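Re-running CTLH domain-containing protein to confirm reproducibility after the cluster update. Everything else is unchanged from the original entry.
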Amino acid sequence: MASLGKDLTFLIMQFCDEENLKKTARMLEQESGYFFNTKYFEELVLDGNWEEAEKYLSSFTVIKDNKYSTKIYFEIRKQKYLEALDKHEFHTAIDILKKDLKVFAQSNEELYKEMARLLALDDLRENDSLALYGDALTARNGLLGDLRAVIEANPLLQGKTRFPQIDKSRLRRLINQSLNWQHMLCTRPLWNPHIDTLFTDHRCPGSDNMQAQLSSLPPSPVAVEWPLSGDSSTDSLVTIDQVTAALAEEGRLYADVKSTEHINEGEGSQTDISTCCQASRKELPIEFPSTVERVLDMGSIMTSMDFHPVHEALLLVGKLSGDVEIWDVAGYKKLFSRAFVVNLLTEKVDKNHAIAVNRVLWSPDGCLFGVAYSKNELHLYDKNGSSFDKKFEIDAHIGSVNDLAFSKPNKMLVIISCGDDKLIKVWDAATGAKLYTFEGNKDPVYSLFPGLKRDIHFLFSISISGEIKVWLFDNKGSRVAYCAPGSCCTRMACGNKRLFLCGTEENGESYLVEWDENEGNIVRNYQSLSKRSSTVVQFNTCLDRFLAAGDEHVIKIWDMDSDKLLAVIDADGGLQARPDICFSKKGNLLAVSAVDNRIKILANDSGRRFLQEAAFDFGDSAKRVTESFSNLSVGSSPFPCQGVAGGNGTMATNVFKIVEVSRCQSMLLTSGVKTNLIRRLVYTHTGNGILALAEDGTHLLWRWAKSGKATMKCAPQLWQPRSGLLMTNDLPDKSGDVVTPCLSLSKNDSYIVSSSGRMISLYNLVAFKKMRNVMPSPPAATCLLFYPPDNNIIAIGMDDSTILIYNMRVDERISKLEGHSKQISGMAFSTNLNVLVSCGVDTQIVLWDSITWEKKKSTVLQVSVGWVTYDLSETNVELDKDQQHFLAVHETQLAIYETATLRRVKQWTITTFCTRISHATYSCDSRMVYAAMRDGIVLILSAVDLVPRIEIDSSAYLPPQLSCYVDPVVVASHPHKPEQFVLGLSNGGVVSVFVSEAALGGMWLLLWFTYAALRSPEGGRCRIRRRIVVAPDQACRLESSTEDPVEEDHAELAYLGYCGEQFHIPLCSLCAHELAPHLF
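Result of re-run:
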């Protein structure tokens, strides 16, 4: 009854909001404490209504409740104090300091004194920590971002920030149902009854002419209705049959009223499913994996599967026969297989009953996997060089081992099992020793689910009778016990910090619900699961947004925030009646079991590209499995970093891998602006700022405030004007149009030109605002570049394959360059040679005279055999420091060309590399090339021979929670520090990376020297070419010599680098540490 009372309170809140009784609704929220209205609270903060905001907050929590509550109150009062100082209202500020902030002085006296010292400043921005403080609105928006995270983490507010999903006008509808029921009980019901009040039960008045009234009654059930708010045309009247169904229904007051009409599931179900499937394809979001890309033949019945947590292409499969296999889903290959071997522990098992696999599961880091069998045993496999070996096998339970899980309490990896013996056991994953035994279940334990909250590890268990228990990792028994909705075999999953339960009752009726673990209640009951199932329905979560379940030969999909069925996928037919489903950790792939012992792999666009790219890289399966498993422990790609260097065709070897954070420093730049993936990224020419352009057209600018230099010691601040307005490009009207964002920064760092598929705009970077629009589309701009001698002139690459030379000051087109066949993707000006280098998605490179704007030369970047380029695959170009050479970047290769002749000097292709190149750039001294790969790896190549020397794994520069799910999209190098660069990420973030000198010292340097005679005795000159290999702490060695010899006393050694520098070194035994000062 207490739960129904809470539900009724929510219905009254909804009613008050619908009737525009806002103050009443807020008062009810405060007095009941059931719902913390974050939207209302944020409106109070944005309006600066601090007193009302604190009053509303105090109904749910006070300052001293916990550290989260203290933080919320402090941030609100601090912002109020700063705004008073900014307005020079010093009396108000002193009053706030004494009355509001004094309470925090006991816990942090230094901070309180620091805030008091702000009173002595004429402008609070003179304080270093407040140097980038904008206007009040901008600061309040930034404050909201911090408050949201703290409110979400506050245990006193958890479960109170989401209003239950209730149908429109639910309270009115319940009253209508009650009135219908009362009217049905009337002895003389009128055809059109009049409702005067709700204070008493309804009764139709008596009549002298009863027969006349009886004859006037309609043959069908009547309906009495209290008018609904809004448009009632879509809300049909509630009939008596529906009221009867509602009265019979148990659960929440705001559950949907279901019809009692009987449906024959045996007839027409396939037609309904087909119709639903066709109708739902338009509704299915594009990010959900829905297209069949692979079909794998297992050869026997599959019982369990799990994608690898790091390597998306590896699928672990358990079978009814007891076999365990690992499959490469991109290459259709089986990489690993182990059959169940009968030993002393299992030799007494009935020979007529085969031992099947109940569950297979990877450990969180992917270095181990566990197997639970239908008879007694639990096996753990460990990576051993090129394969997996059985680490230990345990006689874990009496009877079947039903489920297993991994957890890491006290920083120790453990494996947990449960079985038919009603026990749960915890084992040390390193030694196999039993650590804990959880007892107290009345029935066999069916499933396990580990949890983590506020650094406390715990475990959910569910028995076959639906009893849910919560355990801590000790021997003190269960802490909490609940009952699952169906009192049956149930599994649990987590998504977006919410728990979900799915199970099937003995009568075949299945359910899928969102579960409140704090109160043990149902939050939402998802509809449309079958009523007659012979096996347990399998389900999973995807992308922290969707729920999916295999049911009735299809995959049914729900949005987590709606109980209505979102979509249905039939996967081209042929699925099992209750198919097993499994998502990859990134949510790009979906494995689903099909008839005839097959597994279908479904993919979204990202997954499809991944499978296509990976398929080109797969060679011999034996070699592949060796390379895959040897790299699992470092979290890098399962395939080695190899490429072919042009010229001599040598393979890249001795690649120094960085998988430790100590080898490089990284700093994730903070931003309160929500964006999607970063498409363009540049340092300012002075090096004190970073400018990014996101796919949604938003510009982000970070600056180092006081030092004026980009340093890893302090983080740059996101810069915004006091108005709080962003610099945002116009986007195309049609959401499906392909957008190629582009920007260019003027050499004085004052202006940028930018476009995101529509209007080209000129922005003032100092004032951070748009100055004017330059040129509309179509055709859309796909590449922009300032002309170095004159900031008024820009080169505009268009998607119609032309290049416009345009004077912005007078709005005049200077020239139109035609020579490409597809859209322009890259341009670079050489002022030394007076040329423009351009390239397009057609892989053509063209050289233009920047004086006459005539075409001089052209060449085509040759794509390697075996690679298929996408229609919009970009080619980019970048000049080196002396502008005599340029770097060409394509998704399949890197190449260095001579600028004047377009002759290719060096090339590196990725013929055996696991994934394609996202973007690459020179270091500021042009001696290294930074290449960001699509699997998260960053390569550092020597520009001398274009061979990879260092490989940086994503775990070395990204936090653990991001390294498996976020990839680099674009890279930019620091204009003055060759060891520093930044990466634009697929989640809209930007990370700055500094590679340590120790790591760079591990590179082999291949240097070409020219051994030149100043003047021979005959007065002529001759050259000797020597290849000198320099290794750390080793002497240089001369490998070859050609042409005519000269006398050494007439000669000197000159280094011919791309930077055009020369230095003189005596030709003798020379160590690398002596040479280093000349090189770096």
